[in-house]
Amino acid sequence: MILHDSHCHLDFDNFDQDRPEVIVRAKSADVRFVVVPGVDLPSSAKAQALTAQHPGFVYSAAGVHPNYVNGLKIAVLDGIRELAKSPGVVAIGEVGLDYYRTYSSKEDQKRFLLAQLALAEELELPVILHDRDASVELVPILLEWQANLTEDHPLKRRPGVMHAYSADLAVAEPLIESNFYFGVGGPVTYENARERKEVVKGLPVERMLLETDAPFLTPHPHRGKRNEPSYIPLIAEAIADLHGITAAEVGKITTRNAIGLFGLPEKGDADRAGTG
Fold first, then answer.
1. If 217 and its partner were Cys, which of 56, 137, 211, 213 is the partner (CB 3.0–4.6 Å)?
2. CB atoms within 10 A of CB 125
């Protein structure tokens, strides 16, 4: 199969003891590349360093997560901008709104979201979006931002991905029309996640990316353990069951999606994935 992990926090200290082995296991599981998003400036720098150490396999994103913006000065985005210009940095993220946690005020979250959307537009990098209990406010912001992009702007047709998508299909429909992608991860494998399965069944595979969100959201049957990219085949198999196609087809289509969204080089096996 040809697979990918569009969202894994390999920079987190959960992987400090065995990161090289985690990468070897991922490659052995047919994962051709991973994307490591930042959650703040130091994390974004660590993600970029991993990209430099593993070129062609680890790509990264630079951004400030909504849970980390409380009282933060907007000037920190100068550092994010410089990191985002580095080789192998393919997105701005992880950014968005989180109204489940109370770590950051809504005002600070919106201020940083808007600033980072502007940065994505400036640098022509798609956004990796975090949405937790905030769709009512986040989705209109995203739709307006995408609508205001000029027709010839590269992000008009590949604005970003809704990481760990958990809203319903009615929320997804206008996002699909505006060319957003949807990250699907471990919860689609949970036996009791009937609503999540129905949403994934209703989403077009042509708009999906595979993701682990490692070390979080570990798929069945490994729940309770640290998540890692080598578990991606379990997610592909769950999606395949819901859509009545093979896991190999899921891998091929979603990897093509990820290559297109992040503007990755199409070469070797990745090239065959990207050309259908």
1. 213
2. 25
